[in-house]
Request: fold
Amino acid sequence: MTSIAANLQAVRARIAAACAGAGRATESVQLLAVSKTWPAASVREAIAAGQRAFGENYVQEAVTKAAELGDPGLEWHFIGPLQGNKTRLVAENFAWVHSVERLKIAERLAAQRPAGLPALQVCLQVNISGEASKSGCSPDELPDLARAVAVLPGLRLRGLMAIPEPSDDVRLQRSRFALLHDLLDRLGAESPGLDTLSMGMSHDLEAAILEGATIVRIGTAFFGERETTT
Ligand SMILES: *Cc1c(COP(=O)(O)O)cnc(C)c1O
Reply:
């Protein structure tokens, strides 16, 4: 068995154990393999092991990789910082965007989503670590942003995403993830159909699943240590 196949099995086992501990069905958590910095050959190994959904942070890298793989059955998720001059490539090439934090970006994605494609699935990124993080809208800004994004054509607002500051303290990890869950519940009272909590990475997926994650984004535990860190 290749190491990526072994890693995939190990990550699936962690997800299954965390779901069992949380009293949740294993199928309620989707595994997103974060393939940033890894070549198409690594993605091919993951595909051979049964993985179909991949997360990328760099638009050009992702588009080149997807073209090299040429597999229309894959599902690409954009999870990195998104600038206005990159929205068209994202709107044309991805099924999901997890990292929308400003209305302007959402409006560009909506205008640029090709009519022939299904709606772009969108999560709003929220800064739940206060000043420790620069990415994401503040919890205060979230309700207005969600209201505005929910009505844009070509997009479907699915939920929230966060990248809390790394911590080894499981209680702190859980309290951050619980905060995101709470924000989603409050939005859901007004906008039904929000079903996605994109939270949890290699080091904290168990805490995220305990607090209701529906998508975990796993890079290192899946592909190995990256040479560049992001
Ligand atoms: C890199 C990255 C991940 C994966 O992180 P690991 O710690 O390698 O699992 C998940 N989400 C985002 C937004 C990332 O940039």
